[in-house]
Amino acid sequence: MNTRTSWADLAANSAAESTKAGSSANNGSVGTTSGNAPTRPTYVPPHLRNRVPSSDPPAAAYSGPASSNDRSGYGGGSRWGVPRNDYRGGYGSGGGRGGWGNRGGWDRGREREVNPFGDDDETEQPPSEQENTGINFDAYEDIPVETSGDNVPPPVNTFAEIDLGDALNQNIRRCKYVKPTPVQRHAIPISLAGRDLMACAQTGSGKTAAFCFPIISGIMKMQDQGAQRPPRGARTVYPLALILSPTRELSMQIHEEARKFSYQTGVKVVVAYGGAPIHQQVLFMLQPFAVASLRELERGVDILVATPGRLVDLLERARVSLQMIKYLALDEADRMLDMGFEPQIRKIVEQMDMPRPGLRQTMLFSATFPKEIQRLASDFLSTYIFLAVGRVGSSTDLIVQRVEFVYEPDKRSHLMDLLHAQRANGVQGKQALTLVFVETKKGADSLEHWLCINGFPATSIHGDRSQQEREQALRSFKTGNTPILVATDVAARGLDIPHVAHVVNFDLPNDIDDYVHRIGRTGRAGNSGLATAFFNEGNASMARPLSELMLEANQEVPDWLSRFASRASFGGGKNRRSGGGRFGGRDFRRDSSFNRSNSDYYGGGGSGGGYGSSAGYGSSGGYGGGYGPGVTSAWD
Ligand SMILES: Nc1ncnc2c1ncn2[C@@H]1O[C@H](COP(=O)(O)OP(=O)(O)OP(=O)(O)O)[C@@H](O)[C@H]1O
Question: I need a labelling partner for 75 at 20 to 30 A (CA). Which of 162, 174, 255, 337 fits?
Answer without folding.
Answer: 255
